[in-house]
Amino acid sequence: MAYTVGYFIGSLSQKSINRTLSKALIRLAPDSLAFEEIPIKDLPLYNHDLDADFPAEGRALKEAIERVDAVLFVTPEYNRDIPGSLKNAIDWASRPWGTNSFNRKPSAVIGASPGKIGTAVAQQNLRSILSFCNSPQMNAPEAYIQYVPGVFSDDGEVTDASTEEFLRHFMEEFGLFVERVLTVLPRER
Ligand code: FNR
């Protein structure tokens, strides 16, 4: 069975190391997974006054999440949390009340940073948000990637064998996790 994964890049930067990491993850993923990016950069700031007349950007975001079987978050850490742009996207997708697009949607989180703890704090906070949004999360393996220049080429080739093997294993486990969740939980809300 093939599954479609919608992936979020937490960074808006053109030179994002997390965007490069996402390319590596897609290269190394099992054939059972297909990928489409869920863009977040054009979303306005969330405001619940707009719930009654939800803007087109918010509707497009929710439809994109609802179209895919699972979601993957590839995110930097900003000041020990996820970037505001990613939190903003999650807030949009979770509303209007009663239409949370992450409900029962399997997810995984991963991130890269030049720092030694490789986005660990941001990922813990993201896990808390996803729990509240009732998204079943892959618990293990965890993946805190300390970015070392040269470890990825611009198009996501991994130059270090142990990093490549680790990321391949992460994606294989994610494929198995998605299959297990979707076998047990119905896709409809
Ligand atoms: C950072 N950076 C950072 N790194 C980290 O490991 N923990 C942190 O809390 C922060 N905080 C932080 C705040 C802000 C506003 C910026 C701009 C940066 C450094 C960050 O990991 C680095 O810039 C990465 O390159 C960001 O990821 P992308 O955008 O390249 O994917």
TrEMBL record:
It comes from the Bacteria. Residues 5-145 form the NADPH-dependent FMN reductase-like domain. InterPro entries: Flavoprotein-like_sf (IPR029039), FMN_Rdtase-like_dom (IPR005025), NAD(P)H-dep_reductase (IPR050712). PANTHER family: CHROMATE REDUCTASE (PTHR30543), NAD(P)H-DEPENDENT FMN REDUCTASE LOT6 (PTHR30543:SF21). This is NADPH-dependent FMN reductase. The lineage of its organism: Bacteria, Bacillati, Actinomycetota, Actinomycetes, Micrococcales.
